[in-house]
Specification:
Rossmann fold, alpha/beta, Catalase HpII,  Chain A, domain 1, about 675 residues, 17 strands
């Protein structure tokens, strides 16, 4: 990445300036190695021993310091969302939201706020794959002028449970079994599906999880919802219920099931590599922040409880207003220091944003901070630079492990007279945080908030009704793959009976696929649909789609150069693939640098292929490799461009219709048509 280019983006950025104060480089010229005490090291290669063939000596303090530090390099991984990757960026408000909230970072159009954003997978450990069928985190830390505000999202608008008491249970059920610690990073096992049928409030989110949304093509093409209901509070103390949404500017796009499984083996770091590539090329991932708003007096006017996190707020009923844009434009300088040590907490709020009585949110406000206290073995994890706010921290907290700053004040309590009662409180009028004085009454109980919390299937049915035929088929296939991996016939049969509540025909097909009896029940009588829930209605653009160019020597120089120019002008990412690294040469002498060989890459890593063909030292093997790439790309419904020299590699027969295959022969508009096909991304009617 062009570091200087990245720095220029952050001129005047308080967080960037703060982070730079913690930077150090050990590899600069003329720097001498020292131990932790600053003592210069004369030998960092061999251990101290008694004679050159003798035992090592315990007095080798340099070895002891080096090895003991290495032994402690790791900290406990997060119990969930362990596999993640974070980057920096900026949020810019589109307009003032002062009428609804006194949050300073939303107070005026054009106001910019530095952020740190972390994407993560829920189930797998740190070493698992990016492309698992999984719940994903989309956490954004805003470094505002009033303190840090953490917005923690998932790629679904609903949650798997409606009460925080079940956090542990659903996590245990989804994670590898405690006997063999398998399988890793998947819910294709019976323990999860046993949990689902016995905790059926999970139905709605599991529908989302099993859909294409459970396998994003890229974090850059993934939506995010914090799932919880919050309050906006304005300067007059008026409350408005709010849910947030992150909408990617590139649209929401996904991998196919077979494709995701292969990518996970070929490139387990597929999503992070994709994000790194986009930032390094200066095409920064962008998302719009949307809000859905409900007046306090309208809380009970809907056919669902707005505090129930297993229910979404339909966008056709409660429209999304877009109020700002997030741009991710800088990589971290050190993965461990910044990404691994980053900590997020939904109770990190700023004035103008407050909790509702959402029962899951209430539980999350305890769970997140508590797990970070365990991971870091210290209450001082918010002093780590990535977690530190850009405003002053003045309080009477003290001690705990790894306290870096020295509190030299004589008085460390409140209230006091010796220090004139400082640090002093700040009134709400001057910017001090004040909780919304909502009315609370009732008997102490463990009853659910409303009977509608027990309506598990109406919105799951709404989701099903909203999908296209291609999305429905994908969801059925994904259900069949995952439930079919269960060993228990009882668990499989119970699931079929349960999913008949969503759609009887869907459940019957799944039953046939996994070898159990068809369901006896029928689906709930919901006929509504929500076009906003179908990915076919998302933006489709060619920019940042990755095209693999399969090419040998002797290509048509002018034709290929024109196509490559057209692709680059439309922001398409290109990789040249051939039999060997080095250069390929056209018929008229044009040379192109080869980025990958057939051995070092895979067709699943590309959104589209441009088949040029040509001469090779081993033409039989070269042609065979091209055919294998074409077959898998064709199977995965991807666009394919065929140069005039590439036509021998693909022919139309009765068993295929070549939908989405664009030919250059006698086609003056080939480049433009190919770009249009790349933007479409999938050709669902292909045979």
């Amino acid at each position: 990445m062009d570091k200087e280019k990245g720095k220029k983006l952050f001129e005047g950025n308080n967080k960037e300036e703060q982070l730079e104060q913690s930077h150090q480089t050990n590899s600069e010229s003329e720097k001498k190695m020292t131990d932790e005490n600053g003592v210069k090291v004369s030998n960092d290669r061999t251990s101290l021993r008694a004679g050159n063939r003798g035992p090592l000596l315990f007095q080798d303090f340099h070895f002891y310091k080096k090895q003991s530090h290495f032994n402690r390099e790791r900290i406990p991984e997060k119990v969930v969302h362990a596999r993640g990757f974070g980057v920096y960026g900026e949020f810019e408000a589109y307009k003032s939201m002062k009428a609804l909230t006194c949050a300073d970072f939303l107070s005026e159009a054009g106001r910019k706020t530095p952020v740190f954003c972390r994407f993560s997978n829920f189930i797998g450990n740190k070493g698992s794959k990016d492309t698992a069928q999984d719940i994903r985190g989309f956490a954004v830390k805003f470094y505002t002028q009033e303190g840090n505000y953490d917005m923690l999202s998932l790629q679904f608008p609903v949650f798997v449970l409606s009460d925080a008491m079940k956090f542990m249970d659903v996590t245990h059920a989804a994670k590898p079994n405690p006997v063999t610690d398998t399988p890793q990073a998947t819910v294709a096992h019976e323990r999860f599906w046993d949990y689902v049928v016995n905790n059926q409030e999970s139905a709605h989110m599991v529908m989302w999880l099993m859909s294409l949304r459970g396998r994003p093509r890229s974090w850059r093409m993934m939506a995010g919802w914090p799932i919880n209901t919050f309050r906006f509070i304005n300067e007059q103390g008026k409350s408005t219920f709010v849910r947030f949404k992150w909408e990617p500017k590139l649209g929401v796009h996904s991998l196919l099931l077979d494709e995701a499984n292969i990518v996970g083996g070929v490139d387990p770091d597929f999503h992070r590599n994709d994000l790194i590539e986009a930032i390094e090329k200066g095409i920064y991932p962008e998302y719009e922040l949307g809000v859905q708003l409900i007046e306090e007096d309208d809380e009970f006017k809907y056919d669902f409880v707005i505090l129930d996190d297993t229910k979404l707020w339909p966008e056709e009923v409660i429209p999304v207003q877009y109020i700002g844009k997030l741009s991710l434009n800088r990589l971290v300088d050190n993965y461990f220091a910044e990404e691994e040590q980053s900590a997020f907490d939904p109770s990190n709020l700023v004035p103008g944003i407050d909790f509702s009585n959402d029962p899951v949110l209430q539980g999350r406000s305890f769970a997140y901070r508590d797990t970070e206290l365990h991971r870091h073995h210290s209450a001082n994890f918010e002093e780590i630079p990535v977690n530190k706010p850009i405003v002053e921290q003045n309080n009477n907290l003290q001690g705990s492990y790894l306290k870096h700053e020295s509190d030299v004040g004589y008085v460390n309590y409140h209230k006091n007279s010796l220090a004139e009662n400082t640090p002093a409180e700040t009134s709400p009028e001057e910017g001090g945080y004040e909780n919304y004085p909502g009315k609370v009454e009732g008997d102490i109980t463990r009853e659910v908030p409303s009977d509608s919390f027990n309506d598990y299937f109406s919105q799951a049915r709404l989701f099903w009704n909203s999908l296209s035929s291609a999305e429905k088929q994908d969801l059925i296939d994904t259900f069949s793959f995952h439930i079919g991996s269960a060993q228990s016939e009882s668990v499989k049969q119970q699931n079929v009976e349960m999913w008949a509540n969503v759609d009887q025909e869907m459940a019957s097909i799944i039953a046939d696929n996994i070898g159990v009896e068809p369901p006896k029940g029928n689906h709930v009588s919901v006929t509504k649909s929500s076009p906003a829930l179908s990915q076919l209605n998302t933006p489709h653009v060619a920019i940042t789609q990755k095209v693999g160019v399969l090419i040998g020597n002797g290509f048509n120089d002018e034709e290929v150069e024109d196509v490559m120019k057209e692709l680059k002008e439309n922001g398409v990412f290109i990789e040249i693939i051939s039999e060997k690294l080095g250069m390929v040469t056209g018929a008229d002498g044009t040379k192109m640098k080869v980025d990958k060989t057939f051995l070092t890459t895979s067709p699943v890593l590309y959104d589209s292929l441009y088949i040029v063909g040509g001469n090779a030292s081993n033409p039989t093997k070269f042609n065979q490799e091209i055919m294998e790439f074409i077959q898998l790309a064709y199977k995965h419904l991807k666009p394919i461009g065929i140069a005039t020299t590439g036509e021998p590699h693909i022919k139309k027969v009765e068993t295929n219709n070549l939908e989405g295959v664009v030919f250059a022969t006698n086609n003056a508009d080939f480049g433009k048509e190919f770009v249009t096909a790349i933007a479409q991304q999938r050709f669902w009617n292909r045979m």
